[in-house]
């Protein structure tokens, strides 16, 4: 079974007892816990309760006006969403309320009681998004000691612990993981937490250079040692003396260069290409690869002695698909980063979009997620990223074939996969039911065997409501009342 959906706790403040009772009943019918108060001063005290998510209040009240109450609430609880009610709505009133921090306002008498519940639902969702963003921000702050490594999963906590332990040694470290998992970030975290942090950190991609250029880059060369060597050059091992050198994609190093690397690790000295003398260096080596070096060793593609020299301490980085609980944290980090770069006020990610991000297999790992969020920030015209802002593959409806759908969730833990699969099924079921009943909510509710108010609640919960909900008519209200009485 899915966990119960938490309903927003709502404080309603109005000196008109009829309106107070009506709004309370509307919200309670939608499942919201409601605190109803008929005095503005008492309302200000009640709003300090940290469990209050949304406040609905009247503008015209004795002792303390609604606008003063709004300012008082925002001063005490800036995170609370406030909805104003007024029988004298004007543009000036609305502008003043919004400037003072109100989320929205309602005009009395209500033309459609659904407007009340829908406005509160939207305000509650906004509050929930802000709460989630704050929680993620706190989690991001907590991991600052590990530089740009981000994660709260069991796998990443193990990585953090290992980084903490090996940073204080001088042992060679081999980092293994798929492309895009953050191997260089781990290497940097180790270096900047070590006693070598004030010395150079030098990174080189071993797969990006030819054999001759790679040897020249790593070990340096003397004038005339090969065509184009017009002078002596210091290599990266010399440049990293006293610090750390990070050899990325060590599995792609040619056999001849592997021999020279072995000498550096064994003797602590390098010989420039074309030189006769060796130069002593004090360098910690951290290597990384996306290939299985143990298998490459068995296949004769990687030297066995070099493998054992590198494989003193191994850190295995899990692919992102194996730690889906880290996706929201990473997504929020990249959202904040690229919103600042683009100078856009994009503050959150909708539940539907986050669900789509969490379900994705992320073959490109963290790097792919970063690119997706950057794209969404650039393209969105709203302050919240939604599914429509994600690449086309994320917007496609789940396949009707249950085998395909289950396979797409097979990388997730059982409980999470079950929850997401159930949400996908329920959303498709509700959409299909509405379509079959010509978008008529009452007919769809009867077909589902669910009373209308609970059916409407399901539509909101699974975000089908925006397309399918129609204003209630007196005839529908009468029909629902008769149905409830029978």
From TrEMBL:
Biased composition annotated in UniProt, kind: Acidic residues: 477-486
Source organism, top-level taxon: Bacteria
Pfam families the UniProt entry points to: AAA_lid_14, Response_reg, Sigma54_activat
Domain Response regulatory: 9-123
Record-linked PROSITE patterns: RESPONSE_REGULATORY, SIGMA54_INTERACT_1, SIGMA54_INTERACT_2, SIGMA54_INTERACT_4
Keyword Phosphoprotein carried by entry: yes
Residues in coiled coil: none
Residues the record lists as 4-aspartylphosphate modifications: 58
Domain Sigma-54 factor interaction per the UniProt entry, residue ranges: 149-378
UniProt keyword annotation of Nucleotide-binding present: yes
Region (Disordered): 466-486
Keywords: ATP-binding, Nucleotide-binding, Phosphoprotein
Name of protein: Sigma-54-dependent Fis family transcriptional regulator
Organism: Pyxidicoccus parkwayensis
């Amino acid at each position: 079974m899915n966990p119960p959906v938490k309903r927003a706790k709502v404080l309603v403040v109005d000196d008109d007892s009829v309106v107070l009772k009506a709004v309370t009943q509307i919200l309670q019918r939608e499942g919201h816990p409601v605190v109803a108060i008929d005095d503005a001063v008492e309302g200000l005290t009640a709003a300090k309760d940290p469990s209050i998510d949304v406040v609905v209040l009247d503008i015209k009240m004795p002792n303390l006006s609604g606008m003063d109450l709004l300012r008082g609430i925002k001063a005490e609880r800036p995170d609370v969403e406030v909805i104003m009610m007024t029988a004298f709505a004007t543009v000036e009133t609305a502008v003043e309320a919004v400037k003072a921090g109100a989320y929205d306002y309602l005009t009395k008498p209500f033309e459609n009681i659904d407007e009340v519940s829908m406005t509160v639902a939207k305000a509650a969702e906004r509050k929930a998004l802000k709460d989630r963003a704050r929680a993620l921000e706190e989690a991001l702050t907590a991991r600052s000691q590990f530089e740009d490594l981000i994660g709260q999963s069991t796998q990443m906590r193990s990585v953090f612990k290992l980084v903490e332990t090996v940073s204080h040694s001088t042992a060679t470290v081999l980092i293994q993981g798929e492309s895009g998992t953050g191997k260089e970030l781990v290497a940097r975290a180790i270096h900047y937490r070590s006693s070598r942090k004030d010395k150079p950190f030098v990174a080189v991609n071993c797969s990006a250079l030819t054999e001759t250029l790679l040897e020249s880059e790593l070990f340096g060369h003397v004038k005339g040692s090969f065509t184009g060597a017009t002078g002596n050059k210091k290599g990266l091992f010399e440049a990293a003396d006293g610090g750390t050198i990070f050899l990325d994609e060590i599995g792609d190093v040619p056999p001849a260069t592997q021999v020279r690397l072995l000498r550096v690790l064994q003797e602590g000295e390098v010989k420039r290409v074309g030189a006769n003398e060796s130069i002593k260096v004090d360098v910690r080596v951290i290597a990384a690869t996306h290939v299985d070096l143990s298998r490459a060793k068995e296949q004769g593609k990687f030297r066995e002695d070099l493998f054992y020299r590198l494989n003193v301490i191994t850190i295995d980085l899990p692919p992102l698909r194996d730690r889906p609980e880290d996706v929201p944290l990473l997504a929020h980090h990249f959202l904040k980063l690229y919103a600042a770069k683009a100078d856009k006020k994009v503050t959150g990610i909708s539940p539907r979009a986050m669900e789509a991000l969490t379900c994705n297999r992320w073959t490109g790992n963290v790097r792919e997620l970063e690119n997706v969020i950057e794209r969404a920030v650039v393209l969105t015209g709203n302050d919240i990223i939604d599914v429509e802002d994600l690449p086309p593959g994320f917007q496609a409806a789940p396949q009707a074939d249950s085998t395909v759908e289950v396979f797409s969730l097979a990388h997730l833990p059982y409980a999470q996969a079950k929850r997401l699969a159930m949400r996908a099924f329920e959303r498709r079921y509700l959409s299909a039911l509405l379509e079959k009943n010509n978008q008529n909510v009452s007919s769809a509710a009867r077909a589902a065997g669910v009373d209308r108010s609970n059916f409407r609640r399901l539509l909101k919960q699974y975000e089908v409501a925006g397309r399918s909900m129609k204003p209630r008519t007196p005839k529908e209200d009468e029909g629902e009342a008769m149905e409830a009485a029978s």
